[in-house]
Structures are given as structure tokens and as C-alpha cells.
Design goal:
Elements (H helix, E strand, L loop, with lengths): L2 H11 L23 E4 L20 H4 L14 H6 L1 H7 L3 E4 L3 E3 L2 E2 L6 E2 L6 E7 L6 H13 L3 E6 L3 E2 L4 E2 H4 L24 E2 L5 E2 L14 H5 L10 E2 L31 H4 L6 E2 L5 H18 L3 E4 L7 H17 L6 E4 L6 H11 L3 E2 L2 H12 L5 H8 L7 H5 L3 E3 L8 H8 L5 H17 L3 E5 L25 H4 L20 H15 L2 H4 L1 E6 L6 E7 L6 E7 L5 E6 L7 E5 L11 E6 L3 E7 L1
Parallel strand pairs: 1-2, 1-18, 2-7, 7-14, 14-15, 15-16, 17-18
Antiparallel strand pairs: 3-6, 4-5, 8-13, 9-12, 10-11, 19-20, 20-21, 21-25, 22-24, 23-25
Length: 611
């Protein structure tokens, strides 16, 4: 990391007031591995205040973004509704909430006929206030205080890669433009073809003296200061009514954006191209780095946030993370948060690709897409259980190895890829609902008891079954008016999403709550070392042992992903002479020293503790 980047981070931390401990801030003394996270988009969780449904904006849905009948618009959920339902979340066993982005968004964007709203929170225009559709900054403070009073944490979803789509390009957006025209989709224009120094290509008119490349480590502050004209690839412009819409004010400077057109998801475009039209920030620029450190250090200091989930991590350059992450950790420590939990979103199923971000960018944790992949493979019957063994062996790739891998957030489905139940149903459309319910339950058991910090996607505990990803997997917990949601048959209940779905007696809610109670009661199930006992290329049984961090007592966790019962003999520790059942049935004694027999019903999970 260049010296000027380190100095930038240090300067931000020394700004007046950044060492002040947040009012009411609490440092909850609990190992990260012991957390159970509940993730939701607040607009789709509970409507506690109908007066903010339109965000105080006059006009129709294309102005304020509220339309509860359309899956792509605001539905009315808010922070007050979330506060009202904390008993429900705590009763499920969650110890922390991952809250979808809540900063003020551009209410509506998109081409005519394809408009949708910023209900999801990923189209930020103001980083200093809560989106008025969701409530106020005071409501957010009430939420955090209420969580901390319960001993629960708040992890906030943040975005540094891009803002809402405000910047347009003359060549493909302006109908009055008399110059060169191009594809209206604004395809990406590479640095080699359109250098920062010229307009129109390498031999075009010289417009800047600075030199920039994709290697921020080879750049200086002087290089950035010489990029004064943003017209190197396209000719960016902003409509008059939006020229000062972004907050803080520095975000309105078009020279702080890459302005190279839409990414094609490969090569340099994956980092500096626009994400589906969203304005891609020049995150290697010292002003951008300093600006984001200041923004998020202030939120930690002022509100006592416990961690960040960081969106679109792999679309931001390495130099940004090398400056941002340590600066935020220092700001959190100064605010009384010594174990601030940050996890990046790298949408990749390869453990090696994820591990890279722990070595180069400096992340400690990444959302574990590799776990999601293998969990789906074994739970659906697509692969044998040996893929779980291979997955765990790859933990050595992470910086910190298996100990750091135990802190990785693991999940089954989410708001982008779709719900786990929906993925299983799409894999086998003929699967009966009772079997689908069993497989979803088994998937949650794997997530709860194998290594990692479990993340429960809101609504999964009520049997929601999505039709697909993105908007199709973002149903309401409160009564929905969206037809494509309400025609789904939920698991374990006769309800639909047209009903209120906060049933603490739902079979999935009860099962997950039981798993959470077991996990909390036995540190081996969250922090214990793992030893594989049974896994097969063509088999459905997976057995592993975990060990109490203090007593070294052995816990045998067994899962049968097949549709017929199985009996297996496994090796155990010689010291494990008697067993008791924590879930399902366990033999009280080994057959012989170091040999233990398990009888596993179809689609089941078992936990046996050695005395």
C-alpha cells in the first residue's frame, strides 16, 4: 500500500471527534463464532409506521417508489416494524441482525417501462441519513439501543463500489448529442483503448496530464490531481435537478468516477466498469478513500454499530481495501468496539478465490459462497458427501487457516441468488413438500453445526419458497399484495405470503430455534476443532466430530442426506467411552474402544456428546 494511502487513513482517524465513544455504545463480549445472524431487507420485514410508506415524497409510484403490489417497489417495511418484532427474532435464537442497506436511496430509476425502486437499499444518494421510507436516524438509534439492551448486535450492509445511477453519458444517453453516438447500453471502454490522458483514444486530443492504471499501488497523489477532465472514455453529464443530490457533496464530482461504461464482468471492467449502470466510484482516488473512511467511522462513533457487511467487494480495487479496512478497525476500537466484524461479499464459489481476499485485500472474513455451493450439492443429492470433506480441507487457504475459517459467515440462500428452498425445488420440481421441508431443515442443521457463523435469511424459518432470485426472493413477512409471491405454497403451513408470517410455532422456526439453543449451550458446536469421521464420493452420510475448546470432550455430529436409513461405524477418540444424545438417538457406549455405531434415519441429523 502506498505511503500516501496510509497517511490518508491516519488523517481521517485524527479528525476531531472520531475518538468519541458513541452514546449508549456497548461492546458485547462474545466470540464472533458464537453469533447467529438474521439477515433481512427492512422494507420487506414489518410495517410499523404507515406514515413513511412513500418516504414523505409527493406524486405517484414513479416518483416516491411505493407500490405494495409490485415486487420491485417499496412495500412499507421500516425500522419501527423491525423494533416491534425483536422478540420474534430473539426467540428464533439470533444474536445479531444483518440489516440490509438503509441509507437514503434514489427512489426510482430505470428506463421507461422498466422502472423499479430502491427498496433494497443499494442505490445510495445520501450516506448521512436513513432512507425516509424506512424511518429516521433517530429510529436507527432506537433500534441499536434496543438490540444492545438484549445483548444482540447490529451488522450494517454498506456499499463503497458505487452510488445510484445519476451520471449519464452523452454518447449513449443524450438524444440531443451531435457528436459520436454509440450503443445505448454504454459498453465498457478499456484503459488501453481510451487512456485517461486523451479523448477519443490513444492518439486523440490530450486532455489530462495525469497517468492512471488499474494498479493503484503504482500511482501517486499527483497523478490523481492531474485528472481534471472526465471525458476520456465517454462524456459524462448530470441532469440539472440531480447535480447536487448526493451527500456528502464530494460524491457529486463526476471526476471521482470511472465513467467507462457498463462492466462485462471480466478483466479490468469487473473493477472499474459501471455495475448495471450504477455510478462506479474511482475507489483508488485518495479523496474517495478518505471520504468513505470518514463516512463510516462517523456511523460507528455516533451509533455504536457492531460490524459491516460490505457489498460488491470484488468490484473494488485492492488499494482501497488495504487502506479502508485497518482504518475502520481503528475507528471501531476508538469507539469501544474491539472485535468489529466485517465481512465482504465476493460472489464466487471457489474457496481459493475467496481466500485471496484475506491475503491481498486484508479481509478477515468473506461471505462463504463456497459453503453455500457444497451445502446445496449434498442437500439436493447432486453430490456425495466427500465435497464437504474437500471444502473443509480448503480452509488452510485462508489467512489464519481453520481458526479464521470458523469466523466465516455461512448461508444457504439470500436476496440475490434465491432461497435455499427455491433452489432445491428448482433442482427437483417433482419433490414432495414434506421431503422439501426435511431437506431445508437438514440444510439448516449443516449450517448451524459445521464450521462458520450461520446466517438465517428472513422468511426461511416460515417456509418461504422463492420462484427465483433477486426480486422473486424478497417476499414480505407482513401481508403481501404481490401476486407472484402470494401464489407460492409455503412449507410447513397452510398460510401464504398474503398472511402475516411471524408464527413461532411454525415447524421450521421451532427446529431452527432448537438448533440455535444447542449451538449456544455447547461451545464445541460453534468454536470446536473439526475432525471428519465419514464422507463418501457416492454416499449420503456425513459424520464429523467437534471438540470442546476447554474440556476437549467429543461431540459426534451425523447427517444422512439420503432417502433411506443408514447404519455406519465410525472412529472416535479413545477417551470417548460413554455418550448421551443431544438430538435424535445415540448409542450409550462404543462397540469397541475407538469404534462407535450410528443408526441414521433418512434425511436426519444426530448429535451425540461423549461424557
Amino acid at each position: 500500500m502506498p505511503a500516501w494511502l496510509r497517511l490518508t487513513a491516519l488523517f481521517i482517524l485524527l479528525l476531531p471527534g472520531t475518538a468519541t465513544i458513541a452514546t449508549g455504545a456497548m461492546a458485547i463480549d462474545r466470540p464472533v463464532e458464537d453469533e447467529i445472524i438474521y439477515f433481512m431487507l427492512p422494507d420487506r420485514f414489518e410495517n410499523g409506521d404507515r406514515s413513511n410508506d412513500t418516504g414523505g415524497i409527493k406524486g405517484d409510484r414513479l416518483t416516491h417508489g411505493y407500490d405494495p403490489t409490485h415486487k420491485g417497489f417499496y412495500h412499507g417495511g421500516d425500522l419501527t416494524g423491525l423494533i416491534d418484532r425483536l422478540d420474534y427474532i430473539e426467540g428464533l435464537g439470533a444474536t445479531a441482525i444483518w440489516l440490509g442497506p438503509i441509507f437514503k436511496n434514489k427512489p426510482v430509476q430505470g428506463d421507461s417501462g422498466n422502472e423499479s425502486a430502491g427498496y433494497h437499499g443499494y442505490w445510495t444518494i445520501d450516506y448521512t441519513q436513513i432512507d425516509p421510507h424506512l424511518g429516521s436516524n433517530e429510529d436507527f438509534k432506537r433500534l441499536i439501543d434496543a438490540l444492545h439492551a438484549r445483548g444482540m448486535k447490529l451488522y450494517l450492509d454498506i456499499i463503497t463500489n458505487h452510488t445510484a445511477d445519476v451520471i449519464a453519458f452523452r454518447e449513449c444517453h443524450d438524444p440531443k448529442w451531435t457528436g459520436e453516438k454509440t450503443d445505448p447500453s454504454c459498453p465498457y471502454r478499456a484503459i488501453a483503448d481510451y487512456p485517461y490522458q486523451t479523448k477519443g483514444g490513444p492518439r486523440g486530443k490530450k486532455i489530462n496530464k495525469g497517468f492512471l492504471s488499474t494498479d493503484a499501488n503504482g500511482q501517486t497523489k499527483r497523478d490523481f490531481s492531474r485528472i481534471t477532465n472526465p471525458n476520456f472514455a465517454y462524456t459524462p453529464y448530470v441532469e440539472p435537478q440531480e447535480r447536487n443530490v448526493k451527500v456528502p457533496a464530494w460524491l457529486n464530482d463526476v471526476r471521482l468516477y470511472h465513467n467507462r461504461g457498463n462492466t462485462h464482468w471480466h478483466g479490468e471492467s469487473a473493477v472499474i466498469g459501471d455495475f448495471s449502470g450504477l455510478d462506479d466510484l474511482m475507489t483508488e482516488h485518495p479523496k474517495v478513500i478518505a471520504g468513505f473512511i470518514e463516512i463510516f467511522a462517523d456511523w460507528i462513533r455516533d451509533y455504536g454499530i457492531d460490524g459491516f457487511r460490505i457489498d460488491t467487494t470484488k468490484h473494488v480495487d485492492s488499494a482501497f481495501w488495504q487502506a479502508f479496512l485497518p482504518a475502520i478497525e481503528d475507528a471501531a476500537k476508538a469507539a469501544g468496539k474491539p472485535d468489529f466484524y466485517m465481512f465482504g461479499e465476493v460472489y464466487d464459489f471457489d474457496p481459493g478465490a475467496l481466500a485471496r481476499f484475506t491475503h491481498i485485500e486484508g479481509f478477515d472474513q468473506l461471505l462463504d459462497f463456497a459453503f453455500q455451493s457444497v451445502a446445496f450439492q449434498v442437500t439436493s443429492g447432486q453430490s456425495g458427501t466427500d465435497v464437504l470433506d474437500k471444502f473443509l480441507r480448503a480452509d488452510a487457504l485462508y489467512k489464519g487457516g481453520a481458526a479464521m475459517a470458523r469466523r466465516q459467515p455461512v448461508f444457504l440462500g439470500n436476496h440475490d441468488m434465491g432461497r435455499f428452498s427455491g433452489l432445491l425445488a428448482q433442482h427437483d420440481p417433482d419433490m414432495a413438500k414434506p421431503e422439501l421441508l426435511q431437506r431445508v431443515t437438514l440444510g439448516h442443521a449443516l449450517m448451524m453445526f459445521m464450521r462458520g457463523v450461520p446466517v438465517i435469511y428472513y422468511g426461511d424459518e416460515q417456509g418461504f419458497v422463492s420462484d427465483g432470485g433477486d426480486q422473486l426472493a424478497r417476499e414480505n413477512m407482513f401481508p403481501s399484495q404481490v401476486a407472484v409471491y402470494n401464489d407460492n405454497q409455503l412449507l410447513g403451513t397452510n398460510k401464504t405470503t398474503a398472511d402475516s408470517n411471524f408464527d413461532v410455532n411454525h415447524p421450521l422456526y421451532r427446529d431452527i430455534a432448537q438448533m440455535a439453543k444447542l449451538r449456544k449451550s455447547h461451545p464445541a458446536l460453534s468454536r470446536g476443532d473439526i475432525k471428519i469421521r465419514a464422507a463418501a464420493h457416492d454416499g449420503s452420510v456425513f459424520v464429523f466430530s467437534r471438540f470442546d475448546p476447554k474440556t476437549r470432550n467429543e461431540y459426534v455430529i451425523a447427517m444422512n442426506f439420503g432417502t433411506s436409513s443408514e447404519t455406519v461405524n465410525i472412529e472416535i477418540e479413545a477417551a470417548s467411552k460413554r455418550f448421551e444424545a443431544l438430538h435424535a438417538n445415540c448409542a450409550k457406549k462404543p462397540n469397541l474402544p475407538s469404534s462407535y455405531s450410528l443408526s441414521l434415519p433418512a434425511l436426519s441429523w444426530t448429535i451425540c456428546r461423549a461424557k
